[in-house]
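Q: Protein A?
A:
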Amino acid sequence: MKDELVHHTRLSPNCNARQLPVTMAVLHYTEMQPVETALDRLCDPEAQVSAHYLISEEGEVTLLVPEDKRAWHAGASYWRGIKDVNSASIGIELDHPGHRLGYRPFADAQIDALIPLLHRIVKQYNIPRANVVAHSDVAPARKTDPGELFPWERLAQLGLAIETPKPSLTDVFDNDGAVYLALERYGYDITDGPRAVEAFQRRWCPRTIDGVINAEIRAILFQLLLDRDRGAAR
């Protein structure tokens, strides 16, 4: 099935041996245009960056690094106790101008190509929905991709990501410190607290990205933790 989902192969030298089993999928945008520029960089030995797949805006999937290899896509990153995210993840780059070159909604053809690829990956490696994450989730102090316009709810409707919960309680945290600890408990690196909050906003409440803790953040975060502890948010 994998070969049917891949249109091109252009192997990058930028990879090495995994040290951990695959338990995550990390989604990125390239923030480079045209797509050939991104492909060249991801295959440039001097750049020392790569990903397993790149999906063009037209929906063409290019294999860059075999899945049994450790691609260099996440950089310094952390998620739920994992510090070597590259070893534990499949990295998928989406051809997109990003925030720097003119942020815009993701092309339908691109998401249409992502969905079956991600579905196969999630099923093959038994990846929990909560471990299908944004680059900004695993590196909040450095990254903003794929950003607030990425269609997470479409993935969630197909069982490929956690849907945004409908909170049953509000204002359950006494202070901002408790919220930061809850963010850490959910999986985030909170070394830079406001940037961790921004990453959370991009994923769960994207109408406002300002790094300021508010009632919506507190309610959604508490419900995410509650659902996880109940076993309802794998």
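Q: Protein B?
A:
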Amino acid sequence: MADPASSAGLTLVGVGPGDPNLLTVAAVRAIESAHTVAYPVAREGAVGMAASVAQPWIASGQRRLPLVFPMVAAAEPRRQAWQDAADRLAAEVAGGRAVVLLCEGDVSLFASSSYVLLALRQRHPALSVRLIPGISAVAAAAAAGAWPLALQQEGLLIRPTPEQPQELEQLLDQAAGGGWVLALLKLGGRWPWVRPLLAERGLLADALFAQRVGWPDQQLCPAEQVPATEAPYFSLLLVRQGWPAVLP
């Protein structure tokens, strides 16, 4: 429960990919001291994933504020949701409350909270916002799989999996030429064509497949062990096409 002395303000809090133990000390302190805990949900009445992760530190007396961020392709419903969320959060702060907005993963990496932040700057520019970073699914997957994410002069490119095979072919060529490690997010229904493409290049054995990182049903294994069936939305792939010259 929030301390009565907690000052009004808004904090965007990254809660990591799924495991409650991966929250930072700063994140836990911000949640515990908040009057209002806001979190995204896909629809009215749904249980938010970020709220589920942070549940151990949300007290029964704290006000909960679910914010609907619809999972749709159309731009206008999403834009309206971010603007509505910004207005509701600003109203909470104007009421003298310490408010946190929970975000799965990190608050700045492919995060809905980033759009809310931009909406706040546009609609409520005087509102001060603090950001607490969280562990990303990419970093958590690499750690859980004991997979070095980047070494020496390697680059690291994090991006959603391309929509078309030719786009991924070009990306792999660029990564190989530049010495980049690729972190491909949101494999989902693309895995049936991504797998054979990587197999042709001999990349499956050393690539790390990760699914629902940080959750009880987490799966981590070499990509060659995953059949070419549709993977869940919350899956990613780490691909290295060569090792630096100086190794133990």
